[in-house]
Specification:
Structural class: alpha+beta
Distance between the termini: 33 Å
Largest sheet: 4 strands, antiparallel
Order of helices and strands: HEEHHHHHHHEEHHHEHHEEEHE
Shape: elongated
Number of domains: 2
CATH architecture of the largest domain: Orthogonal Bundle
CATH class of the largest domain: Mainly Alpha
Strand order of the largest sheet: 5-4-7-6
Number of strands: 9
């Protein structure tokens, strides 16, 4: 997706503006639709640096300034026409963004951790980020309200031809590596060699019972496994892919190699001395490397298909393109109503 369009520009600018808005410096431009706003050279310099930090280097300072003027026009137009957010709505938007980030990283964050992420990634405080995303939301809402006809389902829905073309161009990316779905019976090791020998002997006895059928694997999990996370699920840990070096380092090479040597329903012939403890391993499902078709799920753990994923990507791309076009039209209309004075001069 092309991130150098106006939408990305506005996102970058809101970040830059929020951090420097209070600066008093030489004016680069003034904008007046409903009130006079000064865009300072300090704000412009900050915005240009934001571009550069995003890897965008082929945009001049005057082009950035024009985008900042466009953003200010939209914000003033939105305020004039009643497209605003209450403080409670801003708080809800911030909470939603935090929850989305937590979902991506797979864990909850304290307020202090959230602040640290914002500081490290964006150089912003929570308050500045809250204002920034609120501005972005208002900009998007206002443009969409002014140009509703441009955001029709038909305009945003990719055609079958577009889906197929995208798939053909990116087919090498749609693959599933060899994978196993596993269950474990785990007993923890200690720092005492004698105790470890006793633990190993006990688990070897459990394995013998499972093999001769006097106890099921699942029953053995409930009686003997010390892995609390998987114990309530019959020992099920989930899926491992053969290219996952992180899990290979976590579990150990012996564990990993044994898992991928087993077929569906098979149990390890011996207790494994792994990095996480002594383990009896059962493979619930073993899948081979596969080039995915359009109708295949993206992974064994997902219901979304390759087509679903491509449709989502293309919809996002189309939405960005339509937003860019709609924004340009709204800015043109507002420019005709406003008084704009550009004072900044680029050095020759």
């Amino acid at each position: 997706m092309n991130r150098k369009h106006l939408f990305a520009i506005l996102v970058i600018l809101t970040i830059a503006a929020s951090a420097t808005f209070a600066a008093v410096a030489t004016p680069a431009a003034t904008v007046n639709l409903t009130k006079t706003t000064i865009i300072s050279t300090a704000q412009l310099d900050s915005a240009v640096k934001s571009y550069e930090s995003q890897g965008v280097t082929n945009v001049s300072a005057l082009q950035v300034l024009q985008s900042m003027i466009g953003q200010e026009l939209i914000l003033q137009g939105a305020a004039r026409d009643g497209v605003t957010l209450t403080e409670d709505q801003k708080d809800s938007l911030l909470a939603s963004q935090k929850a989305s980030l937590e979902q991506q990283i797979g864990q909850t964050m304290t307020d202090e951790q959230f602040q640290q992420v914002l500081s490290e990634q964006l150089g912003m405080t929570v308050s500045e980020y809250r204002d920034s995303i609120a501005q972005q939301y208002v900009i998007q809402s206002y443009v969409a309200s002014k140009k509703q006809n441009m955001f029709s389902a038909e305009a945003l829905t990719p055609t079958d031809k577009e889906i197929n073309t995208f798939y053909r161009k990116n087919a090498s990316q749609f693959v599933n590596p060899e994978a196993v779905k596993i269950s474990v019976i785990l007993m923890n090791k200690t720092d005492d060699a004698q105790k470890n020998a006793e633990i190993l002997a006990k688990l070897q006895g459990v394995l013998a019972q499972v093999k001769n059928g006097s106890i099921t694997f699942e029953k053995a999990v409930s009686l003997y496994s010390e892995d609390t996370a998987s114990k309530s699920k019959g020992g099920e840990v989930g899926w491992l892919t053969i290219d996952n070096t992180e899990y290979q380092n976590l579990f150990g090479e012996a564990f990993f190699n044994e898992a991928f040597d087993l077929d569906d329903g098979e149990i390890t012939p011996e207790v494994i001395d792994s990095n996480i403890g002594y383990v009896i391993l059962k493979v619930l499902q073993h899948t081979s490397f596969k080039v995915l078709s359009l109708t295949d799920p993206l992974s064994p753990t997902e219901s979304a298909t390759v087509t679903d994923y491509i449709v989502y990507l293309l919809q996002q791309q189309k939405a960005s393109e339509v937003f860019n076009q709609a924004s340009a039209l709204v800015i043109d209309e507002l420019t005709k109503e406003a008084r704009i004075n550009i004072l900044y001069k680029e050095a020759n």
